[in-house]
Automatic annotation (TrEMBL), chains A, B:
<dbReference type="GO" id="GO:0030246">
    <property type="term" value="F:carbohydrate binding"/>
</dbReference>
<keyword id="KW-0808">Transferase</keyword>
<dbReference type="InterPro" id="IPR033432">
    <property type="entry name" value="GH94_catalytic"/>
</dbReference>
<dbReference type="InterPro" id="IPR052047">
    <property type="entry name" value="GH94_Enzymes"/>
</dbReference>
<feature type="domain" description="Glycosyl hydrolase 94 catalytic">
    <location>
        <begin position="317"/>
        <end position="715"/>
    </location>
</feature>
<dbReference type="GO" id="GO:0016757">
    <property type="term" value="F:glycosyltransferase activity"/>
</dbReference>
<dbReference type="Pfam" id="PF06165">
    <property type="entry name" value="GH94_b-supersand"/>
</dbReference>
<dbReference type="GO" id="GO:0005975">
    <property type="term" value="P:carbohydrate metabolic process"/>
</dbReference>
<dbReference type="InterPro" id="IPR011013">
    <property type="entry name" value="Gal_mutarotase_sf_dom"/>
</dbReference>
<dbReference type="InterPro" id="IPR037018">
    <property type="entry name" value="GH65_N"/>
</dbReference>
<keyword id="KW-0328">Glycosyltransferase</keyword>
<dbReference type="Pfam" id="PF17167">
    <property type="entry name" value="Glyco_hydro_94"/>
</dbReference>
<feature type="domain" description="Glycosyl hydrolase 94 supersandwich">
    <location>
        <begin position="72"/>
        <end position="287"/>
    </location>
</feature>
<dbReference type="InterPro" id="IPR008928">
    <property type="entry name" value="6-hairpin_glycosidase_sf"/>
</dbReference>
<dbReference type="InterPro" id="IPR010383">
    <property type="entry name" value="Glyco_hydrolase_94_b-supersand"/>
</dbReference>
<protein>
    <submittedName>
        <fullName>NdvB protein</fullName>
    </submittedName>
</protein>
<dbReference type="InterPro" id="IPR012341">
    <property type="entry name" value="6hp_glycosidase-like_sf"/>
</dbReference>
Length: 797, 797
């Protein structure tokens, strides 16, 4: 197995060794997760997530799941190939026939995914792209005769439609559209639901540019006794032109062709959902039709428009450090993943407030204007009493679902954290003067006051000890039973409030409201005292105290002894003294560090703790129960940087970056194009599965990782006056080239270690800048920055 | 393909020609639907329906569905077999390897299902039974060396566990229990749901009597690249003794054995759900353990106890007519299906009131005491105003689900219909004096008054024309938009109320309340006049009039011209005159009769009619939209008998009875052990799929069919004085032997046609009984009844 990974692509040459290797594509209305073997998960918004390619049975609709298993009849896009003379058959890219290909390639790019499989001298290239906005798959399938003889071939593109509906489903070829059109009615029973149902895109179509030789629309008749591994339909001379009549539909075409040696033929398809046949006709016309305005091929144009759209999601830094894996990931793939979060809101109509704010925090580095709009959109949903809702309703009639039905206590924490990054990047302090209403009060007040009210709400929700009440939960932990009686408190939340107050106090100070700033700093001091009084367990901080006054997350617990979040956030809020810090950091390494990263807690819970809750029922090592939960890890990394622990921080940061040279990761299902929300943990308890990728690319990790890299590791952080340069490069880096796009200007930075240098020295356009601050940044200007580092440097702030 | 069908069993000798052929087993806490190829659907109650053998993905929970598609990785129970020398492999009974067996048998009995597959000289018999009460599968697997040489074999029983939960799932072999134990936590998010969740049986186990050679508990590792059609696990020498760790679990054991020619070995297994390992240990002890009291083999004892339990569901008639298919079905299988309904309440905790009452109407013929209890249980859930609820809550905290959340208007209709059959069978008029409270009023009133109040409620819900308001629906039709504005009316419901009033008037008369009886008869007369005024369309009766005053179900409609229900029930309530009757019956034959039976409406709707509703969105020919909906058909048959149309009635009745000689039915998926809720209709519109069995054995059809046969066809109906003998045998029947168990007595009846006889003549113990009534039936007594029929007789009542 080989993996090629660069800024353009990630490529793999075996579908067998890495059966879960996958890539993803998305646009403004859909998301598609495709793997190296041809399996695909796709969703579109109408406006809630919906499918046009289903499982073979009635699938439950849930939030996006990690570690989704593949199975033989999992939805996918395949091409069966048959030599009409020799009757040799195989399927590309690999499933469902599973012939080991002679040549194989799986190539993930930002704007397309390409598979190539070659067998019996026939090469099949499958290429998938999306248009910019529509929920539609653009497919190109190339057939190549790689042999030296003339061949008679049939190819059969196979697109899963699956079990659409128990009320109504069919699949019929429409010769006018040159498409198999599968129709259904979304099941419902209550009359009240009809108003939504009737507008749904309940059809799935596969539209072909070239007239097919034959087709099949009924799954069972296509597979027959041979099933998908040797379908009766493919074994027969000709597909039966069958229909699905309240049967599981499928879209299969047959093309017969003669191929000369080296000849290549291309077929193009459109696959997606539609409401009506008229809509499908207009899709046909738009992509395959001949129209006056079109100087170029419309299908190709859509592909390039999409590529341009995706390229807009460019990050604000480009680095060249000599570590190619790091460079490729940071320059291309990390901002790509951040951009995905910012554009799609994780394919939900009610994003959790904390996800929404952190995802858009990441967008501050890519599209700050979009991020600003998103923040203001959310803030309008704040309640008059200061509380933020559990989920942001993207449409007025959105219903809060799943975890958003459980009241959490941490939401306001994330407001100043977003703001800090936004101000760092844009210096747009005017945002604080924007006025907005509340969800339950039309009277508009300033953004400043909104946030201030949120902070006040957080501070108010403390108990007599001055610790934050946890209610039915806070961040990152389904701790629904710690405090539901109204008494339990959260160490993490108390720290998070202290940290948020710190950040907010600094912002208050910067805009001249020093009374406020002082007041908040006083609060922080009190909270930190309380934290040390009640939560310090001798070697680390506990996680909380239950309704029944049991402190947990402590050394004497059998499971869940130590949690990472209270350690990270204690560092952020400044609670521990030097001795405490050193001890904590040592303990984190001892208890929580694994070859795959930092575990969220350890040992993972193996049985329900009724005074903690649902977290303890989750499988040990997954999600919140002791996985290497990247979103938690990244805060620890950030906190280490803040605490000047740059070597330790970099070591952990580097571990988080997907790296094809790390076979232990890669063979556990990870392709190096994205960071999953977790790697399986419980390393000491269940080593068999530790390190597996969750395969779920929705995670607040990426925004914070980018921040760590930009503001801390590379140390190029925006401030009111301009930008401060204060890198914390690991000592192993001898030099680096960095381009930083900042407030319209470009900083062209060269960093190098020099023997004679004692501390960091910054030169801008040849001028020595003692405090490392470049002031008066002018948009449109390029600055040459040279940084000299000692061989072992200390930070200069 | 051959089918053997008798009173003991239904047997089939090919899994290929009839891929959906299936049987079912059930006990007081579970239901299991198994097919000839090894696929199984199983559910148990905890108390809501739950699964211990799941699909490979997250399946949606729904009410029981018709026409559920099978797919390669559908849950099942299989045995892989490998010759260790020749490496020949196959799987029994057929899936998932799909080797055409040299010999094959699929045998469905009431108390067990047996598969036999032979390949390469190795025979595998798989036998499945249940215990009487527990949710548990009892498996016997016999391996037979049918060849003349000594063999080294491995067999691998494979039991699907599937995707259990996204919160927690694992599978681990426990050597103390000699079982693979798969554990999970039912997913939930709201704390409030934990109270129920924590009591769930979230484990699935496969317990083996003999120590295995090896095992595998991880689905993916078992299948590997070979998948289920050639699993890596079976290809290898030895299973890897693997565990599933938050991976899809499976239960596979390997047994290696030497087998002499003709040698046979038996293996026994227990498969099912459990809450704890202690519970599994007690199951092991109970069925495989050695205990003092046990004189016989506990496993075998459980099998025979179950057989005895099932045999209790004996019907009240045994016939011998010379038509073996008819006899077997009526004597054994029909009461078995009725018994299933009565015991399990269709595996739901909130049975629809109309289903519940009709299912228990059937139970009047089998277990009248149980039926009485069920009726009284339901009647306590009536509201003070007379309305019955949409669903009966079997437990106090049951929540009404699915269709029971939509208010229907027909519920009270079914009260007197149950009562009539119950009184006919038992003569227990005392039931009318029982006193019961209401759901919303503790004051108890008599059953008589309860029913009377129900009838009054129905009569009250009429419009100014005296037609019954349909609201959001009535029976058999998701007509949720005909009358939701409060104006639309239902022809069927108006007739049903008239018919219920007729029945109720008769009961009132019998208990001497003649004023009431007259009053109700007057109501019936008025309703019938209104029916003729507003619904008669010239050739048949319309189905209803919408909120916007559009009459539908009429000749000038393009789709849904004619519905069967208004025709059947008009005959029952006595609305039509002779001329109307004859015309209607002719039109039903012309428009609705097909080779598979009577369609519910025709032509089936192909598009939404917004003034009718959801019915019109269902797929044409399925369920309520134009299928051969047996529950509707049986009322037409009953109405034909009532109307003296015995030849026509019998022709349709006979068509409904599953018959292996009718290959057109059988090849469409039906085994002759049960009547499905529908056969696919839309015969003229979509001939391809017409006649397919829904495979759903939940249907009110069976109770009414049994009534038709007992009271009408055989004409042995209970009355106050005893029993009236008035057969309506089809002229093709020349004679019949009937045993009728009735109020503790046994009527031993011989019927024969004689040339000299002019009208039906009944002789009891040799005595001629001119009115055909046998009075003063004495329990424990046997009566010899001889009936002489003219060659073409008329009915004598």
């Amino acid at each position: 197995m080989n993996v090629i990974f660069d800024k353009e692509r990630c490529e793999l040459d075996s579908p067998v060794m890495m059966p879960k290797a996958s890539g993803f594509l998305w646009n403004s209305s859909m998301m598609l997760h495709a793997n190296c073997r041809g399996y695909v998960v796709s969703q579109f918004m109408q406006p809630e997530p919906a499918k046009y390619s289903h499982a073979p049975n009635i699938e439950e609709k849930t939030f996006m799941q990690p570690e989704v298993p593949y199975y033989t009849e999992h939805p996918g896009r395949f091409v069966y190939v048959k030599d009409e003379n020799s009757k040799e058959m195989f399927s590309a890219p690999y499933e469902p026939m599973r012939c080991s290909p002679e040549k194989y390639k799986f190539s993930v790019r930002r704007d397309k995914i390409v598979w190539y499989a070659e067998n019996y001298g026939i090469g099949i290239e499958m290429q998938l792209s999306l248009p910019r906005d529509e929920a539609l798959e653009l497919w190109k399938i190339k057939v190549k005769n790689k042999s030296k003889k003339k061949r008679q071939l049939s190819i059969y593109p196979y697109f899963t439609v699956g079990y659409m509906s128990w009320m109504n489903q069919e699949g019929i070829y429409n010769p006018d559209l040159q498409a198999i059109v599968c129709s259904s009615v979304t099941p419902y029973q209550k009359k009240e639901d009809y108003e939504a149902i009737k507008n749904y895109k309940d059809k799935t179509f596969l539209l072909t540019e070239k007239e097919p030789y034959a087709w099949e629309a009924a799954q069972e008749e296509f597979g027959g006794e041979g099933s998908l591994s040797m379908p009766d339909g493919v074994v027969a001379d000709k597909l039966s032109n069958g229909e699905a009549r309240y049967e599981t539909p499928v879209c299969v075409f047959q093309y017969r062709m003669d191929m000369n040696p080296s000849e290549e033929k291309e077929f193009r398809f459109l696959f997606g959902p539609a409401k009506t046949e008229e809509e499908i006709a207009s899709v046909r016309k738009k992509y395959f039709g001949v129209s006056d305005y079109r100087m170029t091929d419309a299908f190709a144009l859509a592909e390039s428009e999409y590529a341009a759209y995706i390229a807009e999601g460019q990050g604000c830094i480009s680095v060249k450090t000599g570590d190619e894996i790091f460079d490729n990931f940071v320059n291309t793939w990390l901002p790509h993943q951040i951009y995905y979060h910012g554009i799609t809101n994780r394919m939900t109509m009610d994003p959790q407030i904390r996800n929404y704010l952190q995802d858009h925090m990441g967008m501050c580095y890519i599209k700050p204007d979009r991020s600003r709009d998103a923040f203001l959109f959310a803030l309008k949903q704040q309640f008059k009493n200061g509380r933020m809702p559990d989920g942001i309703k993207l449409k007025e009639d959105t219903v809060l679902k799943y975890i958003n039905q459980i009241p959490h206590m941490d939401h306001c924490v994330w407001l100043p954290l977003w703001l800090e990054v936004y101000l760092n990047e844009t210096n747009d302090y005017d945002i604080l003067n924007e006025t907005l209403p509340f969800a339950d009060d039309k009277e508009a007040i300033s953004v400043f006051k909104h946030i201030d009210r949120g902070m006040a709400w957080m501070i108010k929700n403390t108990d007599s000890r001055g610790l934050c009440l946890i209610g039915q939960g806070d961040w990152c932990d389904p701790m629904n039973m710690v405090g539901y009686k109204g008494k339990g408190v959260s160490a993490w939340l108390t720290m998070a409030v202290a940290y948020a107050c710190t950040v907010w106090a600094e912002i208050c100070g910067k805009i001249g409201w020093s009374d406020k700033a002082l007041e908040y700093k006083k609060t922080v001091k009190e909270l930190n005292e309380n934290i040390n009084t009640y939560f310090w367990d001798g070697k680390w901080y506990a996680r909380g105290i239950t309704d029944d006054n049991r402190i947990f997350g402590i050394e004497k617990d059998r499971e869940g002894k130590i949690y990472i979040n209270p350690q990270s956030w204690a560092l952020l809020c400044g609670a521990p003294d030097k001795e405490q810090k050193e001890l904590m950091i040592k303990m984190v390494e001892e208890y929580l560090e694994t070859p795959y990263g930092i575990e969220k807690l350890s040992p993972a819970y193996t049985a329900m703790q009724e005074d903690i809750g649902r977290l303890t029922q989750k499988y040990p090592g997954t999600a919140e129960n002791g996985s290497v939960y990247n979103h938690a890890s990244v805060f620890y990394i950030y906190a280490l940087y803040i605490s000047g622990e740059k070597e330790n921080a970099y070591r952990l940061l580097r571990k988080m970056i997907p790296d094809p040279r790390r076979k232990d990761f890669i063979q556990r299902g990870q392709l190096p194009v994205f960071i999953p929300n977790y790697f399986r943990g419980a390393y000491k308890q269940i080593p068999k599965t530790a390190g597996r990728s969750s395969q779920l690319f929705n995670t607040g990790t990426v925004a914070w990782l980018y921040r760590c890299i930009i503001e801390e590791l590379l140390g190029i952080k925006g401030i009111r006056d301009g930008v401060i340069i204060s890198p914390q490069l690991p000592s192993e880096w001898k030099k680096a080239e960095i381009i930083r796009r900042f407030r319209g200007a470009e900083l062209d930075i060269h960093v190098e270690r020099e023997e004679k240098v004692n501390k960091i020295e910054v030169f801008v356009d040849g001028q020595y800048v003692p405090d490392g601050v470049i002031r008066n940044i002018r948009s449109g200007t390029s600055y040459k920055v040279s940084i000299k580092l000692p061989v072992t440097e200390e930070r200069n702030i």
